[in-house]
Design goal:
Layout: H1 8-31, H2 47-82, H3 94-107, H4 112-134, H5 141-166, H6 172-180, H7 189-192, H8 196-208, H9 210-216, H10 220-225, H11 230-252, H12 258-270, H13 274-298, H14 306-324, H15 326-329
Helix pairs in contact: 1-2, 2-8, 2-11, 2-12, 2-13, 3-4, 3-5, 3-6, 3-11, 4-5, 4-11, 8-11, 12-13, 12-14
């Protein structure tokens, strides 16, 4: 779908043919001999279609799916760790920190790769500050960590406002505002290939540890009595969730509501067991954000920032979920 439509059958043929060609290239690089596969597909489509599918649509779709899955898993993990259904993936200030990093890079007139790297680094910096502040008070580690995240998030949000105030209103300010509203318009293989391992590794760690989220969601005392090392487990899953959120934000900008509503939808579909709910969040998060991104780039002639649509859809949807699940939350 898009301004240059390609029918689904042709898309599948182009993708399969491209995969076979790339396998042949890899074999030629390794062996030094190019071998023609007997199952090679003849090109019956134009070069423009090939470019649209492989260089424009496919990298963007992969980036959107990775970002949506990462945000959904991060939100589900935070809700389990903090035992709060209203917690989202930005609770520890990672989104605000990433926004500061991106705004600084834009003010310095850097390219897309540097902007993404700066957003990723500052997102991790914000969460590190949250951990440092939370170490001051040890009476209630979970509550203090959430409060520290709110403090750090507010501080970095103020810094974003300051950077927008000093930015050139005709050149830099629109770029900063547009990035903060979220968009995958610049998504390409070169721009997100470096964060793919981060997303996959962090997501795999959470998937492997997802059964322990059931235990920790019952409380620290119950988790300790069942043999869970809280001091080790909680930082590991929080770091992995932070990496997922930071990576997703550096790919597509600040995108709200995904990490808040997708875990609730998954919980309603498969139940509260994290062994099933985390997997459902991965599938639903990627599918949901891909559908929203398709709406953003096809609904009007000018592409709509994705965070606008996720907020328009997320607010009433969360109100509905709040009404449906109010008995189970009490």
């Amino acid at each position: 779908m898009g301004r240059y439509p390609v029918d689904p059958v042709t898309v599948v043929v182009i993708v399969v043919a491209g995969i076979l060609e790339r396998i042949g290239d890899m074999v030629a690089i390794i062996s030094g001999v190019r071998i023609g596969f007997f199952w090679s597909i003849p090109h019956t489509w134009s070069a423009v279609m090939d470019t649209v599918v492989w260089d424009v649509r496919l990298p963007r779709a992969v980036a959107v799916i990775l970002a949506g899955s990462g945000l959904a898993v991060s939100g589900a993990t935070y809700q389990g760790v903090f035992r709060n259904p209203l917690v989202s993936e930005s609770i520890l200030g990672v989104s605000a920190g990433a926004g500061v990093g991106a705004a600084l890079a834009i003010l310095m007139d850097q390219g897309t790769s540097v902007i993404q790297l700066s957003a990723f680094v500052f997102g991790l910096l914000a969460v590190s500050m949250t951990f440092v502040i939370s170490r001051v008070y040890r009476s209630n580690p979970t509550l203090v960590l959430v409060l520290a995240g709110i403090i750090v998030g507010g501080l970095f949000s103020a810094m974003i406002s300051l950077l927008k105030f000093v930015a050139d209103p005709y050149s830099k300010l629109p770029d900063i505002v547009f990035w903060l509203m979220g968009s995958f318009a610049r998504a390409s293989t070169a721009n997100f290939i470096l964060v793919v391992p981060v997303i996959l590794i962090a997501m795999m760690v959470i998937v492997l540890l997802r059964w322990q989220l059931n235990v920790i969601s019952m409380g620290d005392e119950e988790a300790r009595s069942l043999g869970i090392d809280i001091r080790c487990f909680r930082p590991v899953v929080i770091v992995c969730s932070t990496l997922l959120t930071a990576a997703a934000v550096c790919i597509g900008g600040v995108i709200g509501w995904v990490g808040l509503i997708i875990p609730h939808i998954s919980r309603m579909l498969v139940g509260p067991d994290h062994k099933d709910m985390i997997i459902a969040s991965i599938l639903l998060g990627g599918s949901y954000l891909l559908a929203v991104d398709t709406i953003c780039r096809t609904l009007t002639y000018v592409e709509i920032p994705i965070s606008i649509v996720t907020s328009i859809l997320g607010a009433p949807l969360f109100l509905y979920l709040l009404y449906k699940a109010k008995k189970t939350w009490s």
